[in-house]
Amino acid sequence: MASETLVFIYGSGTFGAKAESIARRNGWQCWTCNDHRLAFDDATFASALPLGAFVPATSGRREIAWLITAGSPRAPSSTSTSDGLPQSSPLAPVEFARLLHRSNISELSSLRGVFAGTLIIPDAQFVVVCRDRLGGATAYYKEDGGSFAVASNAYLLALASNSISEDPVTIGRHFRLKGSHPPGRTAFGAVSELLPGEVILRRGNRTSVLRKKWPLGTTSHAIPASQVTDLIRERLECAVARILPENSDSGIMLSGGMDSGPTASIAARLLQSRATQLHAVSWSLDDFPEADEWTWIEALANHLGIPIHRVAGSGMLPFSLLDTSAVQTDWPDFNPFRSLVNACYRIARDQGLTTLINANAGDRLYPQSRFTLLDQLLRGQYIRATRRSLSLTPASNPLRALRNAEIRTVLAFWKNRYWSKRVKETWPWLVDAQASADHSGFQWPEESQSHHIPSYAEQVLGMGLSGSLAHENWFAEQFEVSRVDPFYDPDLAALFLQIPFELHFDGAHAKATMRRAMLGHLPEAYRTKSRTGLLNTFFHSGFDANIRQIRDLLETVDCWKDWVRTEPVHAVLAGEDRSSRGRLIVSACIGYALWKERTRSLYAT
Questions:
Q1: Which of 103, 145, 173, 245 has the largest count of CB atoms under 10 Å?
Q2: To the nearest 10°, the Cα dihedral for 20, 23, 28, 32?
Q3: How far is CA 146 from the centre of its chain?
Q4: Where is 584: in which H helix or E strand?
Q5: CA–CA gap between residue 194 and residue 183 (Å, rounded)
Q6: Please, where are the H alpha helices in 497-579?
Q7: Alpha helices of 379-519 — where are they, by DSSP H?
Q8: Contacts 24+ apart (CB under 8 A), 77-83
Q9: What is d(CA 459, CA 450) in angstroms, rounded to the nearest whole number?
Q10: How far apart are CA 94 and CA 91, in angstroms?
Q11: Are strands 29-33 and 36-40 parallel, antiparallel or unpaired?
Q12: Contact, 177 vs 146, CB < 8 A?
């Protein structure tokens, strides 16, 4: 199967020669024209198009354009089947090439799907690169005078630059457990990232970068509660339709939650209308009852009438995979649950499922409950906010309200707005030089600051989606599986940014909006259940079981000591510190150590 996120590298000037060298060494195919070279690992997603096919005025000329499409760009609107179900088809290569050539930022920003596209016209010295609005596909570039290169893999560009030196700001953020990298930067100092929604234009030796900002203006655009339920269901249906394969079965990593459950309900119905089928791929954790969701998974699969493929996960403990295959070259992120996740990819491949749905990005759409009161105040809902404040204040001891998370969040917000002296964040586990480094000013997108709660806008639109979540696709592709997520959808993101926070919480449950949207579509017991499947005990059991191997790795590959103090790490490995925070710090050290080993060994060959 061809990789959905095609590995390619294009270069002109000195980068072009290096790109060709990398390609031939790896047995890739390579196209050349004058000083331009394009190398790729799979021809399925690369096309050579006559310029006249998408630029009518040039129909008599013989120029050839290269079009590389990683992922699946789709039209902004979905059509409907005869029974009212949404459907969405990928853009034809010629149509996508036409849009890239016009380089109209409004047109390109309106596209849906997860993709990165590159159009190259060597004779005109013209290159345009476009990345999807939320950054589900990866795209990187390097510019140095008259030389320019772009690739789907940052490490390839580092090789083309003859330098795999790390970027200290990006690595520092990794060890601060931020969960995302600084915007526009990569783990390699010589390589830049094309940000989500950006379009980079290269004409001759001149480069420009464009991006259409999100319209985040104000609190006055809140959607009425009466419309929220229908809008969520309609937009999720369209989002699911965009990720499903055209004429084949699809798998889904099904859990007991309110992201994969609603997705499975919609996908099963859409695929059935096409005479294809949804398959559930899920794990059971029989030895960890508080983490096991198999009863709920099986009940939902039976309700939907779909086959289910089971991974017996109790023996696949976290931290059991501690070699360089547990990380990829672009980013030192380490997932302790890698063995379990890879087992799902393997089953999908063995069942002939080339598309596997994962709804992991759904969590990022929902605000934290502690912002609910603040959201009401900033939306001008003063009567509702007063009533909520009173409900949060114990009549017997009003001062206890200061312990409430919502009230404390309101107080902190006003304090930070009107009092310039703020509490400086500290990282006591870092070595002194790194702990004192300035890592401020990484808010992205910049228009998130115009939202009444900027941190929430960053959560929905920011670098967390385009970081480790996007990089997870690489692991699925090692099993010839394309991993897709319906919650990488600009229409869903824009909708959630307008929903008043209080609608997401009904007292007993979070994600109340999705629960209401799924009324009549999910089994009632599943739809109304409390959260299940907490993996804390499974995580800690895996750490304890593999602590000797972890210790051996970090003693052998001790490059992490340049960033993290040895005392807190040794305290965790000695069992003196059993906190989740301490073990996450060790996880960051593991990821960095394995990443350094992987990139060094590949660079040496």
A1: 173
A2: -10
A3: 33
A4: helix 580-604
A5: 9
A6: 512-517, 524-527, 536-545, 547-556, 566-573
A7: 382-391, 405-418, 432-435, 454-461, 463-464, 470-477, 490-496, 512-517
A8: 78/238, 78/241, 78/242, 81/273, 83/273
A9: 14
A10: 8
A11: antiparallel
A12: no
Helix intervals (H) in 321-404: 338-350, 372-378, 382-391
For the beta carbon of residue 590, count every other beta carbon within 10 angstroms: 22
For residue 232, what are its two tokens? Answer: 């969520």
Rounded-to-integer distance, Cα 430 and Cα 448, Å: 29
pLDDT in tens, 561-588: 999 999 999 999 999 999 999 999 999 9
Beta-carbon count within 10 A of 347 CB: 22
The kind and range of the H/E element at 238 are helix 225-243
CA–CA distances in Å: residue 23 to residues 20, 120, 229, 300: 5, 18, 50, 47
CA distance 491 to 601: 42
84, amino acid identity: G
**Per-residue exposure over 356-366, b if at least 16 CB sit within 10 Å of its own CB, e if not:** bbbbbbbebbb
Phi, psi of 65 (to 5 degrees): -110, 145
Please give the Cα distance from 369 to 367 (Å, whole number).
6
pLDDT in tens, 507-538: 778 999 999 999 999 999 999 999 999 999 99
**Which pair of tokens denotes residue 276?**
């294809």
Question: How far is the CA of 91 from the CAs of 97, 290, 485, in angstroms?
Answer: 10, 45, 19
Q: CA 413, CA 285: separation in Å to the nearest integer?
A: 41
Q: E-strand spans in 140-193?
A: 140-144, 147-151, 192-193
CB within 8 A of 208, min separation 6: which ones? Answer: 200, 201
Closest of 184, 135, 186, 139 to residue 163, by C-alpha? 186
DSSP state of 507: S
Cβ 557 vs Cβ 551: under 8 Å: no
Distances (CA, A) of 326 to 283, 334, 338, 538: 19, 7, 7, 18
Q: Which two tokens stand for residue 163?
A: 């330098």
- Span 385-444, pLDDT tens digits: 999 999 999 988 989 999 999 999 999 998 887 775 556 678 899 998 887 776 666 789
Q: What is the mean pLDDT of residues 253-269?
A: 97
The CA distance from 50 to 48, in Å, is: 7
* Beta carbons of 68 and 10 less than 8 angstroms apart: yes
Q: 445 preceded by cis ω (within 30°)?
A: yes
* Kind plus residue range of the DSSP H or E element containing 198: strand 198-203
Model pTM score: 0.91
Confidence of residue 6 (pLDDT cuts 50, 70, 90): very low
List, in order of start, the domains of the chain with CATH numbers. 8-211 (3.60.20.10), 217-367+422-605 (3.40.50.620)
The closest alpha carbon to 323, from 558, 595, 604, belongs to: 595
At residue 474 the predicted structure's pLDDT band, cuts being 50, 70 and 90, is confident
In the predicted model, what is the mean pLDDT of residues 241-270?
95
- Taking CA 446 as the corner, what is the angle to CA 494 and CA 486, rounded to the nearest 5 degrees? 30
Consecutive H or E run containing 263: helix 260-273
